[in-house]
Amino acid sequence: MDSGQRKPFSQDVTVFHSRWLPEAATPVGYAALIDVYDLNVPMPITLSAIGQRHKVYQADGWNLYTPRHQPDADLEGHLVFALRYEGLDLAVLKTLFRATGPEPITAIVKTSPTGAYARRLWFLYEWLLGERLNLPDATQGSYALIVDPTRQWAVDATTSPRHRVKNNLPGTPAFCPMVFRTSTLDVFVARGLGDEARRLIADVPADLLARTAAFLLLKDSRSSFEIEGEDPPQDRIQRWGQVIGEAGRRPIDRVELERLQRIVIGDARFVHLGLRAEGGFIGEHDRLSRTPIPDHISARHEDLPTLVDGLTAFDRGAARHLDPVLAAAVLAFGFVYIHPFEDGNGRLHRYLIHHVLAERGFNPPGLVFPVSAVILDRIEDYRRVLETYSRRLLPHIRWRPTDRGNVEVENETADFYRYFDATPHAEFLFECVARTVDVDLPVETALLRAYDSFKARVQAMIDMPDRLLDLLFRFLTRTTANSPSVPANASSPPLPTKKPFA
Description:
It is built from 18 helices and twelve strands. By secondary structure, the protein is an alpha+beta fold. The protein has a five-stranded mixed β-sheet. Strands 6-8-7 form a three-stranded mixed β-sheet, with helices on one face.
């Protein structure tokens, strides 16, 4: 079978593409396929290899399997291993299918027409590439799930009679990041944070809840600007807070995103509104030459319309069938990696989190989780999560500097933004939402209760205007917060000098 491979599959190695293995072992699955076919695609976060021990273990970003797991040293063997033990990496699969061409996949199906893995590969080839293989429709074989739901999060399946499979992919070919099931995510999903929040506020008086909601909304709006290193006037913070409060009322599409960008930017005299008309990157410039030093390179401007269409399809489709926090992480971080606008992307990225949570009814009515405030407190963790993909992506983008100090991408990169592993992003977002439920909501409610009690007691002793009462309360609470008995981390940490993904 001519599979287009350029070299034999590796034997035992101790270093693989600059990554050390825990022991001398043979790379298998996606690692082997990327190596043999010289695929220009980001490596999966975790790779697989066959070790010498007779137990399966994980260490240093590798899953080490036993000699009995060794696949056949050919295309089919490593593809089957990947589907069985590693889940779906759609970017690797699509790049591989382009490298092999249709003949090897057709041959695999003809050799095993009733095999579940063969039919899954057949479906994935046609789904990802939009090309029909020269094969008759399947007539035998039990319907197989495309995504193993014990390994990765999936949606309710639709049947594909041609392949005799059930398509439970959480997206479309235009946008379909994947999220692995982890013990962390399983615990968070089972916890039901939205229900916890509703129970928490069930006995809070309506007027107190309304004030809490207003405070949290303003806090989130202000924090979203602070993350970008901005200190806008109060009226601009309040306007953006009003927009966040309306999140989830309109579906996301290009028109809505551009409307939101206009609100975010305000004064657009020096900013191009709408989709970018040139390249984009996050990073610095060389002080002398002004050459870009990118930390992240955004999607090519030529690909933005189809990528935004993919985000739209996800918002109106798969996002409504995934856990709300998982869906919010996929949509929001997918958007910020694409970076479709010249400015305003960071705040819109966080708006999309609110959009999904509100649209799905995850928030208690009228209440916004102050996710941006939590992100501000965890700004270094936020940056590390963004870099879990950006650092793996950057070496696979060929670019040149432009005369305007920008970048021009010279290779096809759209699939890098369609298909990425959103597991770290989902775990981070769940942690942020949990913090709002466990800390922010009860603390802010308790603070307002304390204020009301303070006000009533002071007014029982002396008639004092509300303005002075508020000033006295702020002075006393600030003095308490600065006392040695208060933990050092009670106040928000200072912003770092380098901002993430503006």
